[in-house]
Design a protein that fits this description.
This protein has 150 residues and is of the alpha/beta class. 36% of the residues lie in helices and 20% in strands. The longest helix is centred in the last third of the chain and has 25 residues. The relative contact order is 0.23.
Amino acid sequence: MPHCVILYTPNLEAKTDFSALCRKLADAMLGILDEQGKQVFPSGGTRVFAVPAAHYAVSDGGVAGRAQAAKKGWSEAAATDYGFVYVNIRMAAGRSEATHKTAGDTLSAVVRAHFDLLLQSVPVGITVQIDESAGQVYDAKISSLHPLFQ
């Protein structure tokens, strides 16, 4: 069940390696433990993927970036080509607040480290969000992957 979906503006594709980010997040997810030392995100269910947004609009379209370009040392093209990354992690219900915080802090740190240099060179907004899947009305799992980890 634990899925991590990364939505991003395609203008960032040439500026960072989203495949590497996916691997880093998957590895981090697999290493997160709860208060009893149990793996929070099961190996067989952990999936991370990134999808560029075919259509998007970010903030004011570059007005503030253009005004700040010289102060930030950014080219006008970079300053007005805003980027956005939305990282959404879904996990099964029932985890503690402490586990939510540990997972959020760990995965946010991975994202921050991955984008650190990019954040210094172009305007990019990043959101990391964890949702629980409480109240699902239907959840089918069809897999030959899970048995590998049992």
